């Protein structure tokens, strides 16, 4: 168990809808990262937060947004969902030091029908 | 654009075999290379390599980095069915904190 908690485990929703994925980092970790894993693209970096502030953005669509709250948990909001958004969404956390490995949660499997 | 390429993409072996997984990279401001094992759920951390030529070892798994030739290998000796997983290689950059760029992974299947 990595100590990173993601909810829900599974989510099935229709096109055009909006969903929120939640992540609680490991105790003591200040950085949260969101990744998307789809069958044909591997793990793609979406966005990073450090102690409540956005630190880096990757291949995140404008329909997606995220935030990190004062208690350090993070939420990823996906709106106007399309079939192609179906994927595994992982949250990872790290201490925030310059060379600390990422520790991943078990992911949320999103299916858009 | 940063690139991480793993080979082979899939591999099927018998229990007891030794396997070598490859990872090559092209990134600016390279800092470290990491290996992860992904079974059904979360990728789990195996190794972080920052210096060339220094082998990291954990049980039957070992890994080494060559910063001159820009590649790393992950060796698994005396494979077991429990080693079946996707093995992911990732790199971090000096300018990107702990953010990782991943390769596509190698799907390893170990048959009894």
Lay out the secondary structure.
The complex is a heterodimer of chains A (113) and B (112).
Chain A (H helix, E strand, L loop, with lengths): L4 E3 L2 E4 L5 E6 L6 E8 L3 E9 L2 E5 L6 E5 L5 E5 L8 E8 L8 E2 L3 E5 L1
Parallel strand pairs in A: 2-11
Antiparallel strand pairs in A: 1-3, 3-8, 4-5, 4-9, 5-6, 7-8, 9-10, 9-11
Chain B lengths: L2 E5 L2 E5 L4 E8 L3 E9 L4 E7 L6 E3 L2 E6 L4 E6 L8 E9 L7 E2 L3 E6 L1
Parallel strand pairs in B: 2-11
Antiparallel strand pairs in B: 1-3, 3-8, 4-5, 4-9, 6-7, 7-8, 9-10, 9-11
Give an overview in words.
The complex is a heterodimer of chains A (113) and B (112). Chain A is an all-beta fold. Chain A has no helices and eleven strands. Helices cover 0% and strands 53% of the residues of chain A. The relative contact order of chain A is 0.33. The model of chain A has no long low-confidence stretch (mean pLDDT 93). With 112 residues, chain B is an all-beta fold. Helices cover 0% and strands 59% of the residues of chain B. Chain B is globular. The mean pLDDT of chain B is 94. Classes of the chains: A mainly beta (113), B mainly beta (112). Chains A and B meet through strand 5 and strand 10 of A and strand 4, strand 5, strand 9 and strand 10 of B.
């Amino acid at each position: 168990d990595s100590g990173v908690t993601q909810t829900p485990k599974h989510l099935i929703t229709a096109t055009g809808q909006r969903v929120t994925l939640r992540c609680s980092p490991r105790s003591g970790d200040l950085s949260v990262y969101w990744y998307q894993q789809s069958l044909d693209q591997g793990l793609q970096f979406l966005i990073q937060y450090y102690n409540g502030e956005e630190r880096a953005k990757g291949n995140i669509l404008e329909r997606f947004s995220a935030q990190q709250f004062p208690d350090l948990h993070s939420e990823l909001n996906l709106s106007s969902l399309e079939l192609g958004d179906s994927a595994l969404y992982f949250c990872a956390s790290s201490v925030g030091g310059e060379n600390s490995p990422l520790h991943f949660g078990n992911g949320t499997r999103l299916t858009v029908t | 654009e940063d690139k991480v390429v793993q080979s082979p993409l899939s591999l099927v072996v018998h229990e007891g075999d030794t396997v070598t997984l490859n990872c090559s990279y092209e990134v600016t401001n390279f800092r470290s290379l990491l290996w992860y094992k992904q079974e059904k759920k979360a990728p789990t951390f195996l190794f972080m390599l920052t210096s060339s030529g220094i082998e990291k070892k954990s049980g039957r798994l070992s890994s080494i980095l060559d910063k001159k030739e820009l590649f790393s290998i992950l060796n698994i000796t005396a494979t077991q069915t429990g080693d079946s997983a996707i093995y992911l290689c990732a790199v971090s950059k000096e300018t990107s904190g702990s953010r990782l760029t991943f390769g596509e992974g190698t799907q390893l299947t170990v048959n009894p």
